[in-house]
Amino acid sequence: MSLLTAAPRLRNTSVFPRPVERSVLRKEYPLSIVAAALKGETDIAVGNVIGSNIFNLLFVLGASVTINPIKTEWISVYDAAILVAVSLFAMIPALQKKEICRVWGILFILLYAAYTAYLLIR
Fold it and tell me: Which residues contact 34 (CB under 8 A, 6 or more apart)?
């Protein structure tokens, strides 16, 4: 299955409303994180990731459901459980060594690729 044929299936798979997806998928956002990391400003890179996720989950999702409640399905709860599990997993290197190294970065990218593949085939 190509990405083009899978795209319509992916359109309705997100737990989050469209404003959240748009804010996360802006091309400036990942580029600013990479630029901060390349400059050695890792605290800015990590702060951007954590801050935007907190903002998207609490403010954007909260405002969206205040205006128009969202019906959830079992798959949405499953995706949210994956989000919590991955968030806890990402804390392991930070708590153990106070550093997230390249090996963990590669592992995170592979996990993202696996989750994206899962979304395409489910």
Answer: 45
Report pLDDT digits (tens) over 87-96: 888 888 878 8
Phi-psi region of 98 (alpha: psi -120 to 50; beta: other; left: phi over 0): left
The two three-digit tokens of residue 67, written as one number: 């205006």
User: In Å, how far from its chain's centre is CA 48?
Assistant: 12
| Geometric angle at alpha carbon 122, from 78 and 53, rounded to 5° | 45
Q: How many residues does the chain have?
A: 122
Query: pLDDT (tens digit, 9 = 90+) per residue, 10-62?
Result: 445 454 455 555 555 555 666 777 777 788 777 777 777 778 778 888 888 88
Q: How far apart are the first and last CA of the chain?
A: 12
